[in-house]
């Protein structure tokens, strides 16, 4: 009968094998084959039931870290956002609130594009930069992109030319256009919304 431990069973199997070879007793062979069959069956069960493998893994007791909550801004900070989109975007709580507001209007693509551009400018590897540039273009810039942003044809053409050889500044013109659009259009609507009013109560 198997011991219940695969490592131990394999060791016993090796002991039986050694005993059979040393003594040359053929009656041990049937016992050896029995052990081999039992271990094969046990391995088959473990492969069919991945949950059982958990018994063989050393448990990891440390709990995963929860994402840090953004700290609510002071009244003075929140009031500054009325006149400065940059200060709003630089504040994690403000950015999250602004994004929630835009999602409620189904117009979050401009902010998502702006964030994607910021992430893009942090990339060091040319290969990863080219990959990210292609992703941003296909998602936000090209005609009928799933999240196409509202930029003029001139800006789109310049951006496309910049992507022939991607650099950190490839999306600068398009990002500035979208920033200006959010500052002129989205920010005033956000300031009038309940999302912002909750912050300045």
What does this entry look like structurally?
This protein is mostly helical and 201 residues long. The protein has helices at 6-23, 27-48, 75-80, 85-90, 92-104, 109-120, 126-141, 153-162, 172-192, 194-197. α1 (6-23) runs antiparallel to α2 (27-48) and α6 (109-120) packs across α9. It starts with 5 loop residues before the first helix and ends with a helix. One of its GO terms (molecular function) is GTPase activity.
Write the layout of secondary structure elements.
Layout: H1 6-23, H2 27-48, H3 75-80, H4 85-90, H5 92-104, H6 109-120, H7 126-141, H8 153-162, H9 172-192, H10 194-197
Task: Write a compact overview of the structure shown.
The chain is mostly helical. It contains ten helices and no strands.
Comma- or semicolon-separated keywords:
mainly alpha; 64% helix; 10 helices; Regulator of G-protein Signalling 4, domain 2; 201 residues; elongated
CATH topology description of one domain: Regulator of G-protein Signalling 4, domain 2
Strand content: under 5%
Compute the average pLDDT. Answer: 79
Q: Tell me the CATH superfamily of one domain.
A: Regulator of G-protein Signalling 4, domain 2
Helix and strand string, N-terminal first?
A: HHHHHHHHHH
């Amino acid at each position: 009968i198997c011991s219940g431990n695969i490592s131990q069973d394999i060791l016993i199997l090796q002991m039986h094998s050694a005993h059979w070879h040393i003594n040359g007793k053929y009656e041990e062979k049937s016992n050896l084959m029995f052990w081999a069959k039992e271990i094969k069956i046990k391995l088959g069960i473990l492969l069919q039931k991945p949950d059982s493998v958990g018994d063989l893994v050393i448990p990891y007791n440390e709990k995963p870290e929860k994402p840090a909550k953004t700290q609510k801004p002071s009244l003075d900070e929140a009031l500054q956002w009325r006149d400065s989109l940059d200060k709003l975007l630089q504040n994690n709580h403000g950015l999250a609130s602004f994004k929630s507001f835009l999602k409620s209007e189904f117009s979050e693509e401009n902010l998502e594009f702006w964030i994607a551009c910021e992430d893009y400018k942090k990339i060091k590897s040319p290969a990863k930069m080219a990959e990210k540039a292609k992703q941003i273009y296909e998602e936000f810039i090209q005609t009928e992109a799933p999240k196409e942003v509202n930029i003029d044809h001139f800006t789109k053409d310049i951006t496309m030319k910049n992507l022939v050889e991607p650099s950190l500044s490839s999306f600068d013109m398009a990002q500035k256009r979208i920033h200006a659009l959010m500052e002129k259009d989205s920010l005033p609507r956000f300031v009038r919304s309940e999302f912002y009013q909750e912050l300045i109560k």
